[in-house]
């Protein structure tokens, strides 16, 4: 009986050892795979100006597009942009349908459970835009005023979190999109618009002299490139190239092209 138990114990231990060996992490070839195929496939929502969207000719353009192209050029690979349904984009990444998510992707704790991120390259703020001729220069000037924002946006959440400021406002008018809100601001039907900086700066740059951005904001959120958790070599390379284009001023040039100023996170 003791011999049988001993043999059983040995068998169990052998199984555990073999299982552990079978779970040994494989070599990370993520960067080599990209270099070998000479292509970097970027997943994105192609209807998110100015980060990534289609121009009048149907070409995908935008701030993140130019950033990704520059990184790809320095890596010596072709960059291909693949539109993906946003609610399934992390699944597409983990299924290896795409290599990266590069499209104004906010870094959150929930997403960190599923994927890795590059270093922060943009810190997006919730900014306040007013008419250029307005006497409003700070949040307190909006006491008992009308403020507009996009329904269901991060701006709505940010405003709700700033309880004191929210209570001081006369009314919050909600729009289906930011364009409608800015049109009402220009027409004088509201006094200010709360909007994502990456979106707001873009629209402001397209209408020089029409709007101004207040110095105060309603909080920040970080943008990073989404990468598979095990792709550590590729993550290191993306971080290296982003750092390089920050240091030599290329990212500054790209930022000014789309936003009229440098919004790159230093």
TrEMBL record:
Signal sequence, start to end: 1-22
Coiled-coil positions: none
Main localisation: other
Key words of the record: Signal
Residue ranges crossing the lipid bilayer per the database entry: none
Domain of life the protein comes from: Bacteria
Cellular compartment(s): Cell envelope
Pfam entry (one): SBP_bac_3
InterPro entries: SBP_3_CS, Solute-binding_3/MltF_N
Domain Solute-binding protein family 3/N-terminal, first and last residues per copy: 39-262
Keyword Transcription regulation part of the UniProt annotation: no
PANTHER family reported in the protein's UniProt record: ABC TRANSPORTER EXTRACELLULAR-BINDING PROTEIN YCKB-RELATED, MEMBRANE-BOUND LYTIC MUREIN TRANSGLYCOSYLASE F
Family classification: Belongs to the bacterial solute-binding protein 3 family.
Protein name from the UniProt record: Amino acid ABC transporter substrate-binding protein
């Amino acid at each position: 009986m003791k011999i049988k138990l001993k043999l059983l114990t040995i068998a169990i231990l052998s199984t555990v050892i073999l299982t552990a060996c079978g779970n040994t992490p494989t070599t990370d070839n993520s960067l080599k795979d990209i270099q070998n195929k000479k292509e970097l496939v970027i997943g994105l929502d192609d209807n998110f100006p100015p980060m990534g969207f289609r121009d009048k000719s149907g070409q995908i353009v935008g701030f993140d597009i130019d950033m990704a192209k520059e990184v790809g050029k320095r890596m010596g690979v072709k960059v291909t942009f693949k539109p993906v349904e946003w609610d399934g984009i992390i699944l597409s990444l983990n299924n290896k349908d795409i290599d990266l998510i590069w499209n104004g992707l906010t870094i959150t704790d929930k997403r960190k459970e599923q994927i890795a991120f590059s270093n922060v390259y943009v810190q997006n703020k919730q900014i306040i835009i007013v008419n250029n001729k307005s006497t409003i220069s700070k949040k307190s000037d909006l006491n008992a005023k009308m403020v507009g924002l996009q329904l269901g946006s991060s701006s709505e959440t940010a405003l709700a979190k700033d309880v004191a400021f929210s209570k001081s406002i006369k009314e919050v008018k909600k729009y289906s999109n930011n364009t409608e809100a800015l049109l009402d601001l220009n027409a004088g039907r509201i006094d200010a618009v709360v909007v994502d900086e990456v979106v707001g700066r873009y629209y402001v740059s397209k209408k020089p002299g029409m709007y101004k951005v207040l110095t105060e904001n309603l909080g920040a959120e970080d943008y990073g490139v989404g990468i598979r958790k095990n792709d550590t070599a590729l993550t290191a390379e993306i971080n290296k190239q982003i750092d390089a284009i920050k240091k030599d001023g290329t990212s500054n040039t790209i930022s000014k092209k789309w936003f009229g100023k440098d919004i790159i996170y230093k």
